Amino acid sequence: MVQPFSKLGIESLPEPLTNTRLCEKCQCSLTCSLLQKSSDDPISHLRTSKEMSEFVDLTTIHLSPTHLEYAKKWLKWSILEWETAKRKKKLNDIFMDAPEKREENGNCLANVRLIKCEEIGSQNLHLSFSKRSGNLPHGIFEKGEVVTVSTRTSYAILMGPIISYESQVVTIRVDKFNLRLNNFYHLDKYEGYSTYGLHLGNIVGLMDATPYSTKIRELVIDKRTPTFVTLAKEDVLKVGSIIKELEGNQARAVVKGLTCKDYLLIQGLPGSGKTTTIVALVRCLLRLGRSVLLTAYTNSAVDNMVIRLKKFISEDQILRVASNSVHPDIRPLTLESKIASLSSQRDVVFEETRRILEKTPVIATTCLMASSNSLFLWRRFDVCIVDEASLALQTAVIKPISLANSFVLVGDSRQLAPLVLNNAAKSQGMTVSLLEHLAESCVEGALISLNKQFRMNKQICGLSSTLFYENTLICANMEIENRVVEIGSQENVPFNLSNNG
Ligand code: SF4
């Protein structure tokens, strides 16, 4: 389903046939039928004959009007988004054009100086850049847009969202990395341009007649109430020691994750230990002999979870699937590394590769890689866990969750929403993540809020809690409540303020 969209481009789709003799065996019949059912702009050129209308009705007979409405809405939004991205993209090619040329095209901030590097928690940095000449070009980036950081010789060293874009300073959030203060860099818009076909393919995949897609439609579109079972006594004994390490709500979330038959939502407020909870859940699932598809929207979030997880499990138990380079600490967990040490005999390599792909209980990858890698055409899992679920479009999350018998979405709907460029799609609701969509009507017990945080003292926490979390965010204990940074001397300042412009 994905291939036709990714290769064709929507404006070049031909009109459907009027005679349906060939359509019976066509691999794209569901895609074609859904597009014809979505007859509003911008695809109204797809006119149909009576014979074709009957074929379309037959092909989509397993779908209710509500399912068709969901497909129509998301096909329309995805196509609008694709068209907008194409218009904005122009000649945004960081490999072909000089930074100054890319800036002229409105897709890059060239030659910006790194003036400040601020640590945010243990994993992230806020990097602030400014132009030597003073003011930044107006409106080139918007808050929330994702950019890459490059030099003239190294491309896309880092990637992250824009936290603020002021007249003279732009600040982005990235994973921890060693960039030199006062050096010059280029910030380019990142557009996952080739991914639009995957989003469209995922909508079509959701509408197919398999039992897996049928179940996801029931849960996501019909909003069937999720069900839970009781954990058997012998299973409690197997996982008890892991759960005891956790704070109250984290422990509840893990128990719920082990007992859910359909789905669980975890709203992880800032500093509340989302990754700790995910890691504990995966360890418990492994002890119970269950397989896990561990995903997130970005590669850095996947790497972060894997780095934490690998302290507790053996390398045999996890495989990191990625198309780009992964964090050096987890490189041994990729398929390439795992088979690199084998003899060059083809049979041996083939057998070992098959064993790894079939038997490794935890596969870690991004949501979009789960939509495109051929491994996921045949491998299924007991549980899919999606981190950053509030950051991803519904169409990105649908595919990984349909690969498992139950799923757990983890995120924070009060933080960054999915990035949508098209204003019409944005205003009509495309930015509502699956986490937010399901949380709106979720039953008691299927949504756990991790509201005890370990990061901020009482004053800072209180501000955040009052402004964004209706006073629900609290400190995990007295020690956190009263924590302060002692700045007795210049040595205690985490970075050199005098270098920060
Ligand atoms: S189903 Fe659609 S795409 Fe396939 S042969 Fe028929 S008209 Fe062409």
TrEMBL record:
Which GO cellular component terms are attached?
cytoplasm; nucleus
Claim: Ligase is one of the keywords in the record: no
Per UniProt, residues of the DNA2/NAM7 helicase helicase domain are 247-345, 353-422
Q: Which residue numbers delimit the DNA2/NAM7 helicase-like C-terminal domain?
A: 431-485
- Which UniProt keywords are listed? ATP-binding, Helicase, Hydrolase, Nucleotide-binding
Superkingdom of origin organism: Eukaryota
Pfam families hit by this protein: AAA_11, AAA_12
Task: Return the InterPro entries for the record.
Answer: Coronavir_polyprotein_1ab (IPR050534), DNA2/NAM7-like_C (IPR041679), DNA2/NAM7_AAA_11 (IPR041677), P-loop_NTPase (IPR027417)
Spell out the molecular function terms from Gene Ontology.
5'-3' DNA helicase activity; ATP binding; hydrolase activity
What family does the entry list? Answer: Belongs to the DNA2/NAM7 helicase family.
The molecule here is called DNA replication ATP-dependent helicase/nuclease
